[in-house]
Amino acid sequence: MVMPQHICPFGLKSLDLLKRHGVEVDDRWITTSEAQESIKRRLNVETTPQTFIGGVRIGGHDDLRRHFGLSVRDPQATSYQPVVAVFAVAALLAIATAAASSLPVLVPATLHRFVAISMCMLAMLKLQDLETFSNMFLGYDLLARKVVRYAYVYPFAELAAGLLMLAGWLAALSALLAAFIGSVGAASVIKAVYLDKRDLKCACVGGGSKTPLGFVSLTENLMMVAMAVWTAMSLM
């Protein structure tokens, strides 16, 4: 489909896939909605684009990937990709800031920055859709179930703690915030997953996540508690 207001991304992906596999392509554009509906009725399909190879209909983009022996993403499948992306980028940012400041990279301060940056990034993902996050969070967080507004406050508290840690401001407050939300979060995950054996999705990377609740969320919360303890000890 190629129209003034829309170019089908799956059509472009299919075209690219065919070319990368050395297939000579006769690319036929659908330029109106009426033409698209007509083609769907004629082929008895629900979507376009439709690919034919040697006169045989292969199907849509997912079918074409299967035809070439490639994997097809399951939108409902469990995925750790968002979490891996957050922690990987946070680690790179922590290393980059150390390098930019001419500081040693392999020191505890880099780990401190890594945790603080991770907290900020995770909070940002939650704040993208606060309602959806709160719906998922209320499914397991012990405090939020008793005080619903806490589900809305949590991302802001996480962001504040991360920013204060990163900037080195109000160390006592940042430690207190991180210790509080981290300990409540850890207790909630332990109860929901390891005691009650519930199969839930983690709200750690925002609502709509396909990441299962468990190790990842527990790690996030324990990191906050650890950083709070470290910050508190540095104040003594």
Main attributes?
two-stranded antiparallel sheet, 4 strands, elongated, two-stranded antiparallel ribbon, 62% helix, 236 residues, mainly alpha
Describe the secondary structure blueprint for this structure.
Blueprint: E1 2-3, E2 6-7, H1 9-20, H2 33-43, E3 51-53, E4 56-59, H3 61-67, H4 81-100, H5 108-127, H6 130-137, H7 142-146, H8 150-167, H9 171-195, H10 215-235
Antiparallel strand pairs: 1-2, 3-4
Quick take:
By secondary structure, this protein is mostly helical. The chain has helices at residues 9-20, 33-43, 61-67, 81-100, 108-127, 130-137, 142-146, 150-167, 171-195, 215-235, and strands at 2-3, 6-7, 51-53, 56-59. Helix 8 (150-167) packs across helix 9 (171-195).
How does this structure look, described?
This protein is mainly alpha-helical. It contains ten helices and four strands, in the order ββααββαααααααα. It has helices spanning 9-20, 33-43, 61-67, 81-100, 108-127, 130-137, 142-146, 150-167, 171-195, 215-235; strands spanning 2-3, 6-7, 51-53, 56-59. The strands form two sheets. A two-stranded antiparallel sheet has the order 1-2. A two-stranded antiparallel ribbon has the order 3-4. A hairpin with a 2-residue loop joins strand 1 and strand 2. It is elongated and about 75 Å long.
SSE-based structural type = mainly alpha
Give the spatial strand order of the biggest sheet.
1-2
Which segments are poorly predicted (pLDDT under 50) over 5 or more consecutive residues?
none
Largest sheet: 2 strands, antiparallel
Query: What does the radius of gyration come to?
Result: 24 Å
This entry's quaternary arrangement is: single chain
Q: What percentage of amino acids are in beta strands?
A: under 5%
